[in-house]
Amino acid sequence: MNVGMRVRGGLLAAALIIFAAPVAATLAAMLASSPVAAQTVSSIQVEGNRRVEVETIRSYFRPGPGGRLDQGSIDDGLKALIETGLFQDVRINQAGGRLVVTVVENPVIGRIAFEGNKKVKDEQLSAEIQSKPRGTLSRPMVQSDAQRIAEIYRRSGRYDVRVTPEIIEQPNNRVDLIFTIAEGAKTGIKSVEFIGNNAYSAYRLRDIIKTRESNLLSFLGGGDVYDPDRVEADRDLIRRFYLKNGFADVQVVAALTEYDPEKKGFLVTFKIEEGQQYRVSSVEFQSSIATLDPNALRSFSRVNVGSLYNAEALEKSVEEMQIEASRRGYAFAIVRPRGDRNFEAHTVSIVFGIDEGPRTYIERINVRGNTRTRDYVIRREFDISEGDAYNRALVDRAERRLKNLDFFKTVKILTEPGSSSDRVVLVVDIQEKSTGDFSVSGGYSTTDGALGEVSISERNFLGRGLFAKAAVTYGQYARGLSLSFVEPYLLDYRVALGLDAFYREQLANSFISYGTKTIGFSPRLGFSLREDLALQVRYSIYQQEISLPDNLRNCNNDPNSPNFNPSPAFANANGISLVSTSGLGCYIDGEASLPVRKELQSGKALTSSVGYSLNYNTLDNNRNPTDGLLIDFKQDFAGVGGDVTYLKTAVDAKYYTPLVADIVGLIHAQGGILSKIGNNEIRMLDHFQMGPNLVRGFAPNGIGPRDLNPFGTMDALGGTKYWGLSAELQMPFWFLPREVGLKGAVYADAGGLFDYQGPTSWAFTNEVNVPGCIPSTVTPVATSGTCTGLQFDNGNVVRTSVGVGLIWASPFGPLRFDYAIPLSKGQFDRVQEFKFGGGTSF
User: Fold this and answer.
1) Residue 775 in contact with residue 579, Cβ under 8 Å?
2) Please, what is the end-to-end C-alpha distance for the chain in angstroms?
3) Cα–Cα distance between 132 and 112 in angstroms, integer?
4) DSSP bridge partners of 661
5) Cβ 451 vs Cβ 478: under 8 Å
6) What is the pLDDT of residues 375-405, one digit of tens each?
7) Which residues in 488-619 belong to E strands, given as ranges?
8) What's the pLDDT at 25?
9) Three-class SS of 80-146
10) Per-residue pLDDT tens for 457-468?
11) pLDDT at position 269, please?
């Protein structure tokens, strides 16, 4: 047995010797020629390069220990060379015991051209692609550029776009890069539907979102173009709308989009789970900070017991309370709201918990993406700075302010870790957008006739956050020029300084017999007391003069004048003789009223006034409100120098509330008082003039005190007191698509204008021609006396009317048509049942 084993062992040993010899020889040869054993970076031989230096190519090979290149280093160098995008091909070979790197360089791009693009300009496409003239051609980059061009078209709704890149060889290893674009038809949104909406109709929800269905007028807007980012943002708008109206459990589960080849457009469907609507049953305040009384923050809560749960009001309450706690010295205090739902009673109890938060500080505030806007314009919207305690409520407020500036397409404030665990870095990531506007506006109204305006404005002038505007108006009865400038942060305080210069000319028309010219200047200061409350103080100085056609100021009481025209005696409605026994005929061709002629005789009047306005605004939408309150209170005191003195007070309040089936109710109340200062007389031009702006169904300047002389112009004199009250219901036309923008209205108005306190007499000396006097009050031979010829209606009559209206949020601008029938009026009021007004910018 042992012998056999030895034999087998001997045979095995012999076999190993026989086969090991050639293997060893092969291994020795491989080791002798291997770069691992022989090559260094300096010994690499480079072939095929024209523009790229040899040392640059060698630099991509990193030697291992001992300065030698192993196989891993060679592989890494090969990958690095390929990733540079400088070469079409890279090969590594052994030749003569050396490592040879052979490269084929990518050609240089001579020019880049776009063909077939009509909807997007070459400049915009050039700015978006990565390939550049005189740069190296990279085929993966070219494909990426083609996809980027296609994405630009998809953002504008052209999903059928095809982009084909073409490379044309040129001498000297140069190429021309041509992108051929088949733009395709615009892909719109054919329908927007909602599933699961029981509390609000689809018509109401379409008013919330930005996505619009395509229609005949869609070319004037962009909301009908399919944009996945816009659809996703609409989900959040729907969710926030429900949360604002008591639906604390709402979920917008999905926004489904599907392309319909037959309709050649997208179908968008929002799936909603509304949940229950909750009301607030109680509001409590708790503090874990021993020295901070939670009730001290109660007044900053905007959540009230019995009201609908409102997530927006809750957020603002947290923000206000957290800021107040910081002001009281608790910089790290955090207000956390908690809502406990009662599912059976459909109520929620709110508890505001105030706790000590982590001691985190702001290390830096970095701003990115502002290519035009100065850094300080962005940083001044923060109420915190570098080194302050980190306060999330103040960060959120800054983000909201930056969005409200309307300077940027997107605004995001992110937090990044700082240099230590108690430091954070705020990163303000923004994307600029165009802030300049050039508009040509046109319109027509029954008051001002045809009207056109050309204006140019810039909301972010010189990138410094300034506002500047110049406008020229020219119309049938109104003309003017205005210049405006606003510095929103005067001396680095959150105080807005506004400067306005203006020239206005109002021509005589069928409603007024006289024209006026006004030129003036008005500086103003604006203060934001809260997000919903603003104060403005102003100073105004302007010069005003009146003009009359010749035929309304040719009265001559001198019988020796060649213009003297005797006529038979006339009497007005009150039995007052209009001509003297000598047969004066001043009014035979009509004369303007005494107050108008007195303004003309007085010439130019300078008004210097100071005033203020308080504006309270909780509207959900300033352009198309459906809920909220708007109150504007104004007072102006004239008499700071100048020729005019008075105190004018006015208030205007509008309350909107949603009712049922998308019907919105509106209550509008207004009133004003013009008061004398001392014994100074109030000019007729400073009186309130009212018409359809107070009670619809009446002409401009159609109500209130009026000259009763039937042979004159019977001018409206205005009043020193007015009041008005309107109730209106606005409702959509449910049988029309919401995108048409048509709404109907029914309303009832009531109001009054009374108490004229202007000139009623005119003292004269050494004159025989007293313009404006009724001739019976002065004889041709008089040399002094008093003209007391003004007889006017000054009764406090309540005017009422009912009517219907058509409101159109058209692509041509907001238009409104009203037809109202007066139910009660003054004896001399002027009626205008139909009223139309509107205009646009394009």
Assistant:
1) yes
2) 111
3) 7
4) none
5) yes
6) 999 999 998 889 888 888 888 889 988 988 8
7) 495-506, 515-530, 533-547, 605-617
8) 41
9) HHHHCCCEEEEEEEEECCEEEEEEEECCEEEEEEEECCCCCCHHHHHHHCCCCCCCECCHHHHHHHH
10) 899 999 999 999
11) 93
